[in-house]
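Colleagues,

Please find the record for the two-part complex below.
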Amino acid sequence: MREDVETAGLETSDAVAVARTLRGERDAYRVLVERHSRNVFRMAYRMTGNRHDAEEVVQEAFLRAYQKLKQFAGQANFGTWVYRIAANYAIDRIRTRNLEQSRRQMSSGSKGDRLDIDPMANAKDTAPSPERLAASAQLAKKMNEALDALSPAERTAIVMRHWDGCAIEEIAAVLKSNTNATKNTVFRAVAKLRKALQPHAGGISAARAMGSES
Amino acid sequence: MSHLSEEELIAYQDGEAKGRAEVAAHLEECPECREARARIEAVFAALDAMPVPDPGADYERQVWQQLEPKLPEKTLHWWQGLLGPRRLVVVGAMAAMILAAYFTGIWVGKKNNSRTDMAGAEKVRERVLVVAVGEHLGKSEMVLVELANTEPRKSEGLINISSEQKRAEALVEENRLYRQTALQEGDRAIASTLDELERVLLDIANSPNEVTPAQFESLQKRIEAKGILFKVRVVNQDLREREKNQKPSPAQGNSETQERNKA
């Protein structure tokens, strides 16, 4: 409840800052950038999986938001709006990155094309035994690989749904899809992660312990 | 009932309300489905355990510093920019500083044209800046103290902070001018405090005219969290010391002292 009041306070304050920015006061935009950039960074990092790309996403999202500020016109709170812009840009960036990777792999004659042949779809539950994996660190690595192997839409869905607690409708708006299809995207993402991590049962129990600590 | 599908289990784990009681009842009875559910639960736990690096305490400022040069200027006519109410104050302040420095220069030049006096003129200009920044910090401190010391009653309606807000708006413009000058002069300590002060002043300037007691408290907390009042006081104290040290010795004569004081 207390948080709600504070959020409401920030939203009102954001609306004032947006109005001032639109009047040409560029400094007012600084308030918005400083209030929301950390949250956008967290999402961007989870989407892209690396700091460099995440920082790029943050810059581009706030630049685009500034350019489109007239369109914003108080339709939602600024934080949600810039988050969506960032999520869309992160999707584009992942797609471009994946395409470049696949081109490189094609030109070097590599067989395992991550994009065209989804490794998670073929993942079998018969990979190395749990004993061979050093619990959580190894699991984090596996999880990163599994997340990288998701399609951009699936990764967006899991980041927005699981980490940021977004409603299905919000995710659907970013993915330009309907709610049923978005629900399916979330299911598919979780199922793929489950398959990819299935062989690492030992690590998973370690992660569960870590998760309960955090 | 046959076993639950993975979709049903994921939806259940995800908090889906539809058919929740049935799924829960089935899980009670079916060890296989419980095991399948535990695997999905483990995926969520593994996601929770994934770290995101801390981008650093100064991250927000870095983002702005990189972003600001890329932002296109809004299309204002030059005179609109200069004649805006906030900018008039700054233009006035700038003009006063330039005139002060100019007349000081002329005065020093008339007295003596030697290199030593050129250095003297430089010192006077620096003193002009020290005095001006000191005054600016004093005014900023007053705004911050007023906000920090107000205790809103819970029963109270909206609190009007338009006076503090207007003063903060004017101070933001002045602040930017002094921050840039301090940077040019290579005075990083002052520039850094002025930068932090600018962020707080912007926060105040961009608050609504009237706030609820809870919103007001939230603003106070944001100001307090940055410890800016303490930093402003420390820098102001430092500037006063500098001002004292820059004061001319009695041997320099009264007329010179008076002129410098005027400056």
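Residues 78-107 of chain A form the longest helix (30 residues).

Comments are welcome before we finalize the supplementary table.
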